[in-house]
Design goal:
- Chain A: It is found in: Cell membrane.
- The structure holds two protein chains of two kinds.
- By secondary structure, chain A is an all-alpha fold.
- Chain A has two domains: 47 residues, no CATH class; 207 residues, MetI-like fold (Orthogonal Bundle), CATH 1.10.3720.10.
- Chain A contains 14 helices and no strands.
- In chain A, helix 2 packs across helix 14 and helix 10 packs antiparallel against helix 14.
- The longest helix of chain A is centred in the last third of the chain and has 33 residues.
- Chain A is globular and about 75 Å long.
- The two termini of chain A are 32 Å apart.
- Chain B is globular, with a radius of gyration of 25 Å.
- In chain B, helix 5 runs parallel beside helix 9, helix 5 crosses helix 13 and helix 13 runs antiparallel to helix 14.
- Chain B is built from 14 helices and two strands, in the order αααββααααααααααα.
- Chain B is an all-alpha fold.
- In chain B, a hairpin with a 7-residue loop joins strand 1 and strand 2.
- A two-stranded antiparallel sheet of chain B has the order 1-2.
- Classes of the chains: A mainly alpha, B mainly alpha.
Chain lengths: 280, 321
């Protein structure tokens, strides 16, 4: 296969031209969104084929922040996603290490319980979770946006697989040198596990950043606690005719995920291929 | 080969704890062993407490709630299977939402799998395979709400899709999202766009791992093009196809955000999905008992279809070992 990749035959040239066309068509919605974000008000549908309006209006991006507290949505989204990711990484790496490398009674049984919880869909959980949040007094709070989804067994499972692949001798050497399990975990295992941790971190971050159903249920005061998807949806509902602003807001919301994708594309693609990790 | 994560767990990694632990301990007992156990409990406590509070307890509670009349505010009363009976026999919306969800899955799943498989093979011949993977992956990780809002603009009657249908093919486009004949297919098209890159990456990795020797042997035997694909490559990739099909089915049965943003379930109830039914029963009509029952029915449907897929896999999925 690799030899085909270097040789240019007429056939492969045609194939690449067609492939480029398909890719362009595929990316057209995003391009069109960016183009619309730069059109002056009222020109969105003036000429559907035109990528630019009468002039490029960069002001749209600033106007978004006047029309709605978008900076608030971004900060909320970042806060929730960053804290959520830290909690997920901490809880699942510790648990994964105990499952992969420490010996204790009941390990396999408890691991089966962890695995079983992976089957329960979010929809089954949101209904009682709402009651739980009421009982905690957490309705309409950051805690409610963060904690209910920070303890899924998936991260534990993923990291356990990784820890199991690390040579046992390393751990033994650390133990002989007098390291406690905590020290071994922190100074030996975590640094080695960095690739797995970063894949888990990115997908957890994206999961929080994109989530919609739970914020829709638990947030009453969108202008104070809305995350980006929720705020955008509200804004869109009220300003559906102001497409230039909606698109400017949309384009802004795409930026963090696109930056992550560019920075970590090799890890991400490998991570998905190896684990089928869900970013959806 | 890509296998479902759950199957990797049964394969002991070399040098892992699957080896007899006594050998590793060198016969030492007592002190270090017991200390290790207490460390294990300490390490596990955040995860176990979190999982108990935020998953196990809610699951148990969801069982109880589905058996009660449980308004968000006000008195609860025991109903037995009344909520399930209501959903299946009386609620005019529930069965419609089941039908819509099945229609969505029946359209989305094959389209997504076939197109992402075809694209994965297509880009596998390019030296820029990596770049194409990333480009097609973009919609898979950008916020669904944003993707849906963008497509809502494209679908407007005065929008760009309607315009090109008219100017290139002379077709007067319907109002895609407001016409019950086109609303669901419009949602499906947007969803395929959004979901294709994810499965493309999985397939693409599976293609990379096809055993070179087998492919070369097949080529020497004269297998070309479609024959090579159907008789050699596809069977070798069947575990990946099975994985993708199963995962895509599970997620498409839970479709909500796209339909909610694009159509709000409309026109009429032609795109209301099962999750929207749960959401509306629970948080619009404020009857959490009915919502819990609806969520259980959704889960039951997913489990049933997944079980059928697992039983059926023996017929067409070939594992190496």
């Amino acid at each position: 296969m690799s030899t085909d990749k270097i040789r240019w035959t007429p056939r492969s040239v045609v194939s690449h031209v067609l492939l480029a066309a398909v890719t362009l068509l595929f990316l057209a919605p995003v391009v069109y969104a960016v183009a619309t974000a730069l059109k002056p008000p009222g020109e969105t549908f003036a000429d559907p084929t035109a990528l630019t309006g009468s002039h490029l209006r960069w002001q749209n991006f600033a106007d978004v922040f006047d029309y709605l507290p978008f900076q608030r949505f971004i900060l909320n989204g970042l806060l929730v996603a960053v804290i959520g990711t830290l909690v997920v990484l901490t809880a699942s790496s510790l648990g994964a290490y105990a499952f992969a490398r420490l010996k204790w009674r009941g390990r396999d049984g408890l691991f089966l319980v962890f695995l079983a919880t992976l089957m329960v869909p979010q929809e089954v959980l949101v209904v009682p979770m709402f009651i739980l949040m009421q009982e905690f007094g957490w309705v309409n709070s950051y805690q409610a946006l963060i904690f209910p989804w920070a303890f899924t067994a998936f991260g534990t499972f993923l990291l356990r697989q990784f820890f199991r692949g690390i040579p046992y001798e390393l751990q033994e050497a650390a133990t002989l040198d007098g390291c406690s399990p905590l020290r071994t975990f922190r100074s030996v295992m975590l640094p080695i596990a960095r690739p797995a941790l970063s894949v888990l971190a990115v997908f957890t971050f994206i999961g929080y950043w994109n989530s919609f159903l739970w914020p829709l249920i638990i947030v009453n005061d969108v202008s104070a606690l809305g995350t980006v998807p929720l705020g955008l949806e509200l804004f869109f509902g009220q300003n559906g005719n102001q497409w230039h602003l909606v698109m400017a807001a949309s384009v802004i919301s795409l930026v963090p995920t696109l930056l992550l994708l560019i920075a970590l594309q090799k890890h991400l693609v490998k991570g998905i291929a190896a684990t089928g990790l869900a970013g959806r | 080969m890509v296998t479902p994560p759950i199957e990797q767990s049964t394969r002991p990694a070399p040098g892992s704890a699957a080896r007899p632990s006594r050998v590793r301990d060198g016969g030492r007992r007592g002190g270090p062993r017991r200390r290790e156990r207490w460390y294990a409990y300490g390490f596990l406590s955040p995860g176990v407490v979190g999982l108990t509070v935020f998953t196990l307890f809610p699951v148990a509670m969801a069982v109880v709630m589905s058996l009660y009349h449980w308004p968000i505010f006000g008195e609860r009363s025991f109903l037995g299977l009344g909520n399930f009976r209501y959903l299946l026999l009386e609620d005019p919306g529930f069965l419609v939402s089941v039908r819509n969800t099945f229609v969505f899955t029946a359209l989305f799943l094959p389209l997504n799998v076939v197109l992402s498989l075809a694209l994965a093979f297509w880009i596998s011949n390019s030296r820029w395979q990596q770049l194409f993977r990333v480009l097609f992956f973009i919609p898979a990780i950008t916020p669904m709400v944003v993707n849906a809002v963008i497509w809502k603009m494209l679908y407007q009657p005065q929008g760009v899709i309607a315009h090109y249908l008219d100017s290139w093919f002379g077709i007067t486009a319907p109002n895609f999202l407001a016409d019950s004949g086109t609303a669901m297919i419009s949602v499906v098209v947007m969803s395929v766009w959004q979901g294709i890159g994810y499965n493309l990456v999985v397939f693409s990795a599976a293609i990379d791992q096809l055993p070179r020797s087998v492919l070369e042997a097949a080529e020497i035997d004269g297998a070309r093009g479609l024959t090579k694909f159907l008789r050699v490559q596809l069977p070798l990739m069947s575990p990946a196809v099975f994985f993708v099909t199963t995962m895509t089915m599970i997620t498409s049965m839970q479709v909500f955000t796209q339909t909610y943003i694009l159509t709000r379930g409309g026109p009429g109830d032609s795109t209301v999905t099962m999750v929207q039914n749960v959401y509306e029963n629970g948080f619009v009509s404020r009857d959490l008992g009915v919502a819990a029952a609806g969520a259980w029915l959704l889960f039951a449907v997913i489990l049933l279809i997944t079980a059928v897929q697992f039983l059926g896999q023996k017929r067409w999925v070939h594992y190496e070992h």
